[in-house]
Design a protein that fits this description.
Layout (H helix, E strand, L loop, with lengths): L3 H21 L12 H44 L10 H14 L4 H21 L4 H8 L3 H4 L4 H11 L3 H38 L2 H11 L2 H13 L3 H9 L1 H10 L1 H10 L11 H11 L3 H25 L3 H32 L10 H35 L3
Length: about 400
């Protein structure tokens, strides 16, 4: 499907011959009349092809970026769960474990487990976020969801049909597309899952225990167990029991939040680069194998930004009430500006490969990342200074 930008690009390309001809011969008859139907069709097809090519290139850039991020995440997980130091597994023992996993994770077992979730959870979520739900009707009409809840389902359906007469077909199509995709993905996951489970079982259980396990799985009861054990984990009764157990867990964290917060406050604050002395910077530079001047420049930049921010906060804090209002407004404006800047940067990155950091020079990348780090630290320092200023103001105010 063409993106909005590709549509604009196609339109611009289609308009180029008209604009160029108009400037070349302003006194001639309208250019549109000089084009044959075949030429106009060819121009339109060329514009469409250019737009499709741009969209495909953009998709490839996004895919490459996503792949890089996934590779980095996998590398982090591999570091967390390092298996390089584990001893080799005896081939005979691994074979016993692989036989057990073949029975416990047969082809289609993951899909069977997901069918329990898909049949219940997915369809329920589709209903809740579909056009007939109270929430979506409230968003579309602006009427409070409490008032919409008083309507019967037939009325809600008629209202939803006014916004989207083909919503049922649309929901069915989503289901038709998503279900096979989930099945395909789960099928791809089964072989590596069997491999990992085989290795884990081979390390956790002896050859004799694995032999006993395989003997059990070969019995009628074991066969039934092997075919159901994974699907049972997503059984509605199991899922409901687990979900009902979550509120007490959350309440325990809420009840102990003051204690946890107190313990955290008692810990010394984390040092920032701006807190390092010249001697500490020299030691840090030696460890990092970088020029100490690089770290000093960063430290001095952080100190300057922090000092300016703190002075601005102090100047604005005429009273506790005024300070709170001004700080909230400033924070909201900064957050909005940051959001808009991020959105603009993201849009530019998609359409302009010059914003792809892999195309930047090492010097430019270092400068940008340094300024970003300084900005983040200055923001944290500003927030901390604001909290301290508010705390000081509270001490002066009457209870």
């Amino acid at each position: 499907m063409p993106t909005f930008k590709s549509i604009l690009l196609a339109g611009a390309v289609a308009m180029l011959p008209f604009g160029a001809q108009a400037h070349a011969a302003p006194k001639e008859a309208p250019v549109a009349e000089t084009f044959t139907e075949e030429e106009a069709q060819a121009a339109g097809e060329a514009a469409a092809a250019a737009g499709a090519e741009e969209a495909a290139a953009s998709a490839e850039r996004q895919k490459a970026k996503m792949q890089k991020e996934m590779d980095e995440a996998i590398a982090l997980i591999e570091k967390m769960f390092d298996t390089s130091s584990l001893p080799p597994i005896e081939p005979a023992r691994l074979a016993l474990a692989q036989k057990a996993m073949g029975a416990l994770i047969p082809s289609g077992s993951l899909e069977k487990m997901m069918d329990n979730l898909y049949g219940k959870m997915f369809k329920t979520l589709m209903g809740e976020f579909g056009g007939q739900s109270d929430m979506m009707l409230s968003i579309q009409t602006g009427v409070e969801s409490d008032k919409i809840a008083t309507l019967d389902e037939a009325t809600k359906g008629k209202i939803a049909d006014m916004f989207d007469p083909h919503r049922k077909e649309r929901e069915d199509q989503i289901t038709k597309v998503v279900k096979p995709l989930i099945s395909e993905v789960l099928g791809d996951m089964e072989p590596p899952m069997r491999e990992g489970m085989s290795k884990a079982y081979a390390r956790k259980f002896t050859a004799a225990q694995l032999t006993d396990l395989n003997s059990f799985l070969a019995t009628p009861t074991g066969t039934v167990y092997a075919s159901e054990w994974m699907a049972v984990q997503a059984d509605p009764e199991v899922m409901l029991s687990i979900i009902k157990a979550i509120p007490p867990l959350v309440n325990k964290f809420v009840d102990r939040a003051p204690e946890i917060e107190k313990d955290m406050k008692d810990l010394p604050k984390e040092k920032q680069l701006s807190d390092f002395s010249d001697k500490e910077l020299a030691s840090l530079a030696k460890l990092m194998k970088v020029d100490v001047k690089v770290l000093k420049d960063q430290r001095d930049m952080w100190k300057t930004d922090t000092m300016e921010t703190t002075e601005a906060v102090a100047a604005d804090a005429v009273s506790a009430d005024d300070y709170a209002v001004d700080a909230s407004a400033d924070y909201a404006v900064e957050a909005a500006d940051a959001t808009l800047a991020a959105a603009d940067a993201a849009a530019d990155a998609v359409s302009d490969p010059a914003y792809d950091r892999s195309n930047w020079s090492a010097a430019d990348l270092k400068r940008v990342e340094g300024l970003e780090t300084a900005y983040e630290n200055a923001s944290l320092a500003a927030q901390q200074a604001a909290e301290e200023a508010a705390a000081n103001a509270r001490k002066k105010l009457p209870d």
